[in-house]
Specification:
Blueprint (H helix, E strand, L loop, with lengths): L1 H22 L6 H9 L6 E5 L5 H8 L3 E6 L2 H10 L5 E5 L12 E7 L7 H14 E12 L5 H14 L4 H6 L2 H8 L2 E8 L4 E7 L1
Parallel strand pairs: 1-2, 1-4, 2-3, 4-5
Antiparallel strand pairs: 5-7, 6-7
């Protein structure tokens, strides 16, 4: 299962890397909103997991935070490094399910639009690793797809996202993210629904 996941994800984002920033047009307003919503303290060290082309990392960096972005995809990170205009961001190839940092190292760990690209076993490992490397007084931020309450809108959104997302998206969107976070040991402090209920921003702690 795990081996299949890693091969699949690397191949998927090798194909999508050159188009990914165009897809980001749909979420570019969310990136600064995430920073303002979770409101990290000054001089926070931030880990952006599954950073992709670095858009969320850049949003943190723009506000002066020190950011490390990690991702499995070398193709995505090449774009992140090429478009990086900040000296307070660094990017590394690394696995969110096996984060190469000591326990209690970061003030903030963030994962945005990535849990839906993982099978449940990997999701649990990533959340466990986020807890491990986040300081006791730190912030754990999760941003991902949700579904609105209106049936027609829900079905249209589901089919649209399913068209270009990974094979793991249907299982993720039909599961209960809040139960997963609770069972993983993450306490939700507050949450914000945006884009008509299509996206959820969660600020939590361990």
């Amino acid at each position: 299962m795990d081996e299949d996941y890693y091969l699949y994800i690397k191949k998927l984002f090798k194909r999508w890397a050159f188009l990914y920033n165009f897809i980001e047009i749909f979420s570019f307003k969310i990136r600064p909103l995430v920073v303002d919503f979770i409101n990290p303290k000054k001089d926070s060290k931030i880990l952006d997991i599954a950073t992709g082309t670095g858009k969320q990392a850049f949003a943190f960096a723009k506000k002066g935070y020190n950011v490390t972005g990690i991702d499995l995809s070398e193709d995505m990170l090449k774009i992140a490094k090429r478009t990086n205009r900040y000296n307070n961001v660094e990017f590394k190839i690394a696995d969110g399910a096996n984060i190469p940092f000591n326990a209690n190292y970061f003030d903030v760990t963030c994962i945005s639009f990535a849990l839906h690209d993982m099978p449940i076993a990997i999701r649990k490992k990533v959340l466990s690793e986020m807890i491990r490397v986040t300081k006791k007084t730190g912030i754990i931020a999760i941003i991902d797809y949700s579904l609105p309450n209106y049936k027609i809108r829900k079905n249209l959104f589901y089919q649209f996202i399913k068209f270009y997302e990974s094979k793991y998206y249907p299982d993720f969107i039909k599961s209960d993210l809040y139960v997963l976070l609770r069972d993983s040991g993450i306490q939700i402090e507050k949450k914000l629904s945006v884009i008509f209920g299509f996206v959820i921003i969660i600020k939590g702690k361990k």
